[in-house]
Amino acid sequence: MADLLTIVGGGLAGSEAAWQAAKRGVRVQLHEMRPVRMTEAHSSPLLGELVCSNSLRSNDPHSAPGLLKKELALADSLIMEAAEACAVPAGSALAVDRRLFAEYITERLSEQQNITIIREEVRVLPETTAVLATGPLTSQSMADALAELAGNEYLFFYDAIAPIIDASSIDYDKVYKMSRYGKGGDDYLNCPMSREDYIRFYEEVMAADKVDPRGFEEKKFFEGCMPIEVMASRGFDTMRFGPMKPVGLSDPRTGREPFAVVQLRPENREMTAYNMVGFQTRLKWPEQKRVFSMIPGLGHAEFLRLGSIHRNTFINSPVLLAEDLSFRQRPDLFAAGQITGVEGYIESTAMGLIAGINASLKLLGRQAPSVPPSTAHGALIRHITEAEKKNFQPSNINFGLFPASEIMQRMRDKKLKKAKITEQALEAWADYLLLVNAV
C-alpha cells in the first residue's frame, strides 16, 4: 500500500507522528505492544503514558522548553493539545494529570479515521515506509533487529523515576506553599530543611543501599535525570545546588530561605498525590521509605509509587541518521523520540512531529523541506545528527544547541539574547510550516 505508514511505538513520539501523518491524508498503522507485552515502567495500555515526571517543563516563552512548546503548538501538535487540556497547577511550568493526558491522546487517535491502532509487539524492522518510535524501553527483540541494521551502534544508560506521595499523608504544619520567586502562585509544597536536617539527610542518602545495574549493562546516567544519590556522591552541596535549591523559596513563616528545600508538585488535578521534584532514585524501596521520611513534612508519608530505574535505549544518531531523521542505510525508515538521542517529553514529541511529517511527505512523493537550525526543532535535529560521534549523549532542548551568529555572540544581556533567539526561531518556524503545508 503506497500511502500506508507503519509506526512502531505508541508513546509521545509515535502518537505525534501518527497524528501529523494522518492530518496529511496518509493512512497509518500504529503498533503498540502494550498490553500484550508490558514494559518495566508502564502501568497501563494507554497511548502517550508518562512514566517519569508529569511535568513538560517551563512555559516561559523566552526559555528553550517554552519556545519548543510554542513551535509544537503552532504545528497543531496533538501532545500539546492534550497537555493544555489536562494541565494541573505547576507554577510557571506545564504539568499534566498523567491519566487524563494519556486517555485524551488515546481517544483522539482512536477516533481518527486514517489511524488504525494495532496491539502487538513488532519484533523486526518493517520492510515498508515506517517510523520507529519504540522509545527508551525498546523490547529486546526490536533492539536486536535495530542492532542488525546499525551494527551495534546503539547504547544503554539508565533512567530513574521519582516517588509519588499520598497528599493526605503529608504533615502540612511543616511545609509551605510557594513557587520559586512566587512565579505561578503557590502551586508547589516546600519541605524546608535546616543545615542540621540536611547534614543528616545527606549522610543517610550516602549510606543507604542502592540497586546496582546488572553485570552486563554499563552504569550510565543522563545528566538531566540524575538519581538523587548519584548527585549526593558528587559532593555535599550538589543536591542543594540542584533539586534542593532553596533560592527564591523564602519560608513565609520565618522570612528566610531554608538551608535546603524538597519541592512537591501536584501529580493530578485533584491534588491527591504529589511528585517529589528531582528525586529520581535507585535506592532500594525500604531505604526510600526510611530516608525520605526524614524530610520535614514527610515523616508519615505514604508512597503511592516508589522510585526505580530502568534501561534507556538510544542510537548513535550522528552516525546513523540523515537530517530528515531517516536512516542513512534505509531512507524509508525514520526514527523518532528518545531513541534518537533527545531527552525529555517535549523533545521526544518534537522528533515525532518531524518524523511524522517527513515520512508522510515521502509516501506522498513530495520533498520535505529542511527544518531551519535556528528553530528549537532544528537545533535538536542539528544536535542528534551533527554532534561528536564517539561520545554522543542525549540532550534536552537548551539555547546552547542553537547556532550563534556573530551578532548574537556580541550580545551581553542574556534576557535580550534569549528574546532575540526566540523571535528569530518563531519567524523561521512560521516560514517552515508554510513550506510544509504548501508542499
Any key phrases for this structure?
439 residues, alpha+beta, FAD/NAD(P)-binding domain, Elongation Factor Tu (Ef-tu), domain 3, 2 domains, 6-stranded mixed β-sheet, 6-stranded antiparallel β-sheet, 13 helices, 17 strands
Task: Report on this structure.
- A 6-stranded mixed β-sheet has the order 6-2-1-7-17-16, with helices on one face. The chain has a 6-stranded antiparallel β-sheet with strand order 10-11-12-13-9-14. A 3-stranded antiparallel β-sheet has the order 3-5-4.
- The longest helix is centred in the C-terminal third of the chain and has 25 residues.
- The protein has 2 domains: 278 residues, FAD/NAD(P)-binding domain, CATH 3.50.50.60; 144 residues, Elongation Factor Tu (Ef-tu), domain 3, CATH 2.40.30.
- 33% of the residues lie in helices and 18% in strands.
